[in-house]
Write a structure and sequence with these properties.
Elements lengths: L1 H69 L1
Length: 71
């Protein structure tokens, strides 16, 4: 009776610990993936902005060259 209850409690506590460790591990994994995705999105946004800036500059240079040629 008494020994059994004590063994069951030990098993339950061990199981709780395993479960908690697993949950912490999953949370850490999810947080890490989220950070990777956010960093990737930031890099994509930066690349798009840079690309747009280059195109804008190119267009402005074309306009300037056209105006200079018209003079």
């Amino acid at each position: 009776g008494m020994l059994n209850a004590s063994q069951n409690r030990t098993k339950r506590e061990a199981f709780s610990l395993v479960l908690k460790n697993y949950q912490d591990c999953v949370k850490a994994y999810v947080a890490e993936r989220k950070a990777v995705v956010e960093a990737s999105n930031a890099a994509i946004r930066a690349a798009v902005e840079e690309h747009n800036a280059v195109l804008t500059k190119f267009r402005e240079d074309q306009e300037a060259a056209k105006k200079a040629a018209e003079k």
